[in-house]
What we know:
- The structure holds 2 protein chains of 2 kinds.
- By secondary structure, chain A is mainly alpha-helical.
- Chain A has helices at residues 12-15, 18-34, 47-61, 64-67, 137-145, 155-164, 166-169, 190-202; strands at residues 77-78, 83-84, 97-98, 101-102.
- Residues 1-16 and 28-33 of chain A have low confidence and may be disordered.
- Chain B has helices spanning 23-30, 75-78, 85-92, 102-115, 121-128, 138-152, and strands at 2-8, 11-17, 49-52, 55-58, 71-72.
- In chain B, helix 3 (85-92) packs across helix 6 (138-152).
Amino acid sequence: MPPFATSRCSNLLICMTSLQHTALLFILLLAGLTQIPQPPPGTLPSREAGLHAFDSILTVLRHPRCINCHPSGDRPMQGMEQRQHYFNVQRGPDGHGVAAMKCGTCHQRSNNPYSGVPGAPHWHLAPRSMGWVGLSDHELGAQLLDPERNGGITVAELEEHMLHDSLVLWGWAPGVDRNGNQRELPPLDLPEWRAAVKTWIGSGTPIPSPK
Amino acid sequence: MANFKLNVNGTSHDVEAASDTPILWVLRDHLQLVGTKYGCGIGQCGACTIPLDGQAVRSCSLPVSAATGRKITTIEGLSEDGSHPVQQAWLQHDVPQCGYCQAGQIMTASALLQKNANPSDSEIETAMNGNLCRCGTYTRIRSAVKTAAEKMG
């Protein structure tokens, strides 16, 4: 048992070993790096803050919970290893699958904790033009903002989608797999995600320059 | 437990069940419609497939609460006397071997043909990919679906 867990040691920092100090320092440093800076009330976030927020957003978009249904081809992916979806599942004409093999054949409106089949309202693939696999930071940002590719939505509608769409929000409530194991969550928690999106949108949706 | 009103094969049923009970078990245990088979229980094999409002679904993963107010069809309701074109095509091609998966295969095929009256080989394979057959009757299934399409056309 670590020394600081005993009743004789009342001061946590004094009782920690040097290794534990280092670990704590690392955790605090990491927390500082991932924290989205918030502007003072009544002011807009800076471009620099917006770019920092977009970097954080990208870590979520590229997480399997999100990108698995944003393939650049016609087949969704599954799992943390991003394997091709079982049964050669295909996008179909509307992103909801093909006749007799629709997304809704298995995926219902909510997660199924018994079978491990995940579910959320309107479970489907993003349009082919919104495939993210293989895109650079700049390309992905440009795609999000391009009405020709993003389904014709405005920045306000993009914000609404990112903050409130039930299928997007499923990423933070992905349920358990068929073995009962909790699915991994995206790297930002939901409040951090919302703060990052608001900062990015509020700063004018800056994206990194092409390299 | 709650009461659910279900429309199964054109007949209305009131069943008392927990809201998360898979519709598969309501069909089999409450309504004694045992033609729908339990295979894997996790939506991986397709043996339990039933059309819900014409759309093939895995009944092992569909809670009864999601099926109320919708039209459920089971293999018993596809036809009264086995005369549905898909059933006739299955007989013509002598499709089943052990037969366990075949109710699910037939229900998926019938759902496919409702949406696509003349599917290509590729469309048949894509649609039927989620229905596994350990006896490997896939080529006969594909032939039977094409025959059924001709019969229905």
